[in-house]
Design goal:
Layout: H1 2-19, H2 23-36, H3 42-49, H4 55-58, E1 142-144, H5 145-153, E2 160-164, E3 182-189, E4 194-196, H6 208-214, E5 216-218, E6 224-235, E7 256-265, E8 269-272, E9 277-281, E10 300-301, E11 310-313, E12 317-319, E13 321-327, E14 333-340, E15 346-354, E16 359-367, E17 382-388, E18 398-403
Antiparallel strand pairs: 1-12, 2-3, 2-18, 3-6, 4-5, 6-7, 7-8, 7-9, 8-11, 9-10, 13-14, 14-15, 15-16, 16-17, 17-18
Helix pairs in contact: 1-2
Amino acid sequence: MTNSVHFVAQRIRIMAARHSLNLLTTSTALVALLAACGGGSQRDKIVSSSPVPPTTLNTAVATPPPVTPARNGTTPTSQPNTPTNGVPNTSPPAPAVPPDQTATNPPPASPAPRQSETLPTIPSAPTPAPSPATVPNVSGKGVRGDALLAMFEQNRCLTWASSTTSYDGPVVENGQAIGIANVRMAAVLHAGNYTSDPNFWIPVGAPDEALRCGKRYYHPVTPGTYQYILYSKNDYKPFRSKPLYGEPWIKRGFNGLEVSYTINITADTLEIGPYPKAKIEEDLGYLATSWDSPIPQGRFDQPWFGSTSVIFRRDQEVPFGTLQEWTDHTGAALRLMLIKGGKKDEVKLCTNADLSFVKRLQCTVWRIPADWKWGQELKTPEGYIVDDRSVYPNESGMLYWRVTN
């Protein structure tokens, strides 16, 4: 067999000389022929029987030069010495890469990533919402939800109101000149979050309201469902005196209004509604002839409003304006409003009642400092009433009442 190999090799050299073949091609053909005949060194046999070429032997294997393309410009489609399965018996020749394939077939040292390794395009992150800690208690656009809840759950205890020249004007010096009996107003969340001091005592006789409001202890409301009741009405019964019915200076009435809102409180939200209730009563007490005579009774109405409710987050801003409006089939309307005050940190929580014989704006005026935190007691609020007199017989214009500190 060895003599045959030498003979074939000699014939190849003669043909190469005749046809000017490249010596490199001769070496490659020789290697292929040796492999086909089962020849070669013991090293070649070790590589072909091992699934992974030993590291110590790889250094002894010289990498053959690239295969020279045939004269017709084609490159062999298969490589010699490359088994169908397993690793090559020897390092295969590196195929010649046409210039137009370099982008799609990079060298093994920098392989193209597999499809499964391609990272997806990451969309740009949305603009983050302002942190709850950055929502101010009062801004030019609204109030923080916690501050609005405090305006519901805290209250002014005393209810006496005085007639004034405007909603923020001074008290009318001669109250009797208005011709209307005493007016009271209040807005209270019935949540039991105030406790009156039972030991508070005034040495002289005082109305029950003065005793109840003299000294109170506040604690913030807990989650639950409560009724927020707002009212304004006439009071013909002064303390320790006979009723005012029949007094000659009382010439006109002040129709009574009571509105009840359902307030649902959670750790994160404040819900107002559904089904607010309103009761209005016509005041004809000014027609009584004496304090002990029968009191004329006026009209009574209780409009029915819908099931709409509105929810606010306690850590987000609640904008100024109408928070919610409710109407009935007759066109009667209740509007719950949040109004920015004219002074620093001043905010008003108002009800605008547009009913059959009560057209009235009633507001509680709060001051909420910039450093206020939920659970702190606010300063006692003030309040006012703007009463549209066009619903009273032979009247027009507006009358005003205020409660002040």
